[in-house]
Design brief:
alpha+beta; Immunoglobulin-like; Neutral Protease, domain 2; 22 helices; 33% helix
Length: 755
Amino acid sequence: METQLDPMKDDLPLMANTSYMLVKHYILDLDVDFKSKVIEGVIVLFFETGSQYRKTSSTGKDDCQSQFDETCKMRASEPCHIPVTNVSACSFKTEYNDFTVCGKGEEDTSDKNGNYSNEEQASGISSSKDCCDIENHGNKDFLLVLDCCDLSVLKVEEVDVAAVSGIEKFTRSAKLTDVSKELENLRNQIIHELVTLPADRWKEQLYYFTRCSQAPGCGELLFTTGTWSLEIKKSGIQTPTDFPHAIRIWYKTKPEGRSVTWTTDQSGRPCVYTMGSPINNRALFPCQEPPVALSTWQASVRTAAGFVVLMSGENSAEPVQLQEGILSWYYYVTMPMPASTFTIAVGCWQEVKKQSFTAAIETNTEFSLPSSQASFRWHEEICAHVEYPCRFQNPAARLQAVIPYRVFAPWCLIEHCKERLLHLIPQCLSAAYTTLGTHPFSRLDVLIVPSNFSSLGMASPHIIFLSQSVLPGGSHLCGTRLCHEIAHAWFGLAIGARDWTEEWISEGFATFLEDIFWARAQQLSHDEVKGQQELKALLRWRRLRDEVQNSEEELQVLRPKKESTGELSESGASVVKHGLKAEKIFMQVHYLKGYFLLRSLARTIGEASYLVSLRKFVHKFHGQLVLSQDFLCMLLEDIPEQKESGLTVESIFQNWLDTSGIPKPLLEEGETWKECQLVQQVSGEVTKWIQTNQRIRKSGKKKRKRDEVIFQKLLPDQLVLLLESLLEEKTLCPRILQCLEKTYQLREQDAEVIH
């Protein structure tokens, strides 16, 4: 049954009808204007006919009718404001008023919502009258739906790719008749041939994508915008197969758009960047948001000289001067990924130059082999993903322990980055490689983002955003956060969740792996690793306990859609459950419960065997979208003996993923971490501080020679546990607070300790 989307609730609607048309490639041509706080330009989208229509189209065009009924259902069932009693009697002329063709010379006359001619636009998704163009015959025009929000769309047109010189190589037809239908079919055939070129012709493919994007238009298309979508149609075209497979959209963002934030950096200079919005990139460009819409892209971004454009492209762009004071930056990707992974940051960033000792570290680690090279035999197997130039099939990439990297920051933080961050990157990259093998991406930029960034870090392909908060103090917080974001290259990016409600697949794995990466980066002994990981587990358990006690139960479930996880509507539209709920942004339950599940599985199986299984999972599923059961089934297949002990996919769902609260297996384990030596050490220090506090309070104002108490030096995580434990005391006298500050030099510690 069709999901009813209600945009007034906390669920995020994914409107794109990907089952009927699937975007394969985007080309963006954008101008960034800091004065108006607007990004304006053109996007060209290249499509393939979607899987749902390909399945049914063999029986004839009439089968497509279910799609239109489907699309109608997806609209809010508000009454038409067209003054007729019978909707089926609407003529093309009446319906045309609700769609717009904007001439090339026209100004942007849209209202603040980017709507044209829609005086009574539905508050959520467009009303059902916008679904189809109903002609006198009763035939319905196909409607392409894209995810779009907070954008002013100026014009939409079909692109005449057949006009590109040299494009004949992509046509099988020997002759062309003068029938327009034949020409339309030819254009779509050219695009089909172009998007299905083999991976080794990727340079040629990008070249012709660019040429096609510059081809002339061959007819403007009707469109309308709603709160969450852009809907496009071509009069008389009734099937996705016949709909134009290359369309060009002129648009501009709005200053209040929620996909990017306009701000100033720590040096007071203007900048704009994608900050990981709950609505993803739909307020940056019209797109297909559902994860299934894996696509490649090219982007040219123009901005004033003095600004640096960083993006999630696989090339390190060099600016080209177009005219005095204007630079253009060009990026591209060849690995198909969801549109949500597209990232941009434009600012007066300065590159932090590497020091000589950093280069030496790279030289030493560049070709170190993974710790269990024998377990990497499946490298030679054919990848299971759609075809693209994959690093897992590249012999040189498979040996690259440290990928090329750069660090950017506002000028006032350059020295901090040199001191705290720069030398950690090769260590953490090498540790990640030793653990999981081939880096999925060919390079890495790390950017210290402005102070309004609401997280400690965010990973995208080829680029990581880090908060300035990771820089003060020692290397612990900076290193662990860097490891966490590097882990997302494998879990969250190279392997994505097929259903975005399963965030734990990304965040749980990254939290689990950050400990392993960081321990290897520090080259700790086995006992040191065990002690630090048990201390970390206790801190995370306390955090999870507090969050469970202070949050809604429905937000504590890792698989909120349970058996229907991963299911889509017939059109491909769906919702992200609780995707817009404000509290969810600050919750860590997906990190913590996901981490504890993986930790529990590692302890059950044995860490060495478990890491081999993780590497196997990476090689089997990179470049693909997965559900929880894909990982769990593969893992349990490798350890059939565990089924006898009752460890099954169903039991894991029941105990860990489908219920709120603290999982039962974790409740039983909670006390064991208190026996850890590092935790015992903290307990001893807490006792000393409480006794000292009591002694000071009893002595009152009397000056009395006090016995000198010797406090031990503590690790950052131990300090966090110590301070949390002391906060549980009813009162601490001011002198104790001063002593704590002096003993541990708290103001010089990292952000977690200071917090």
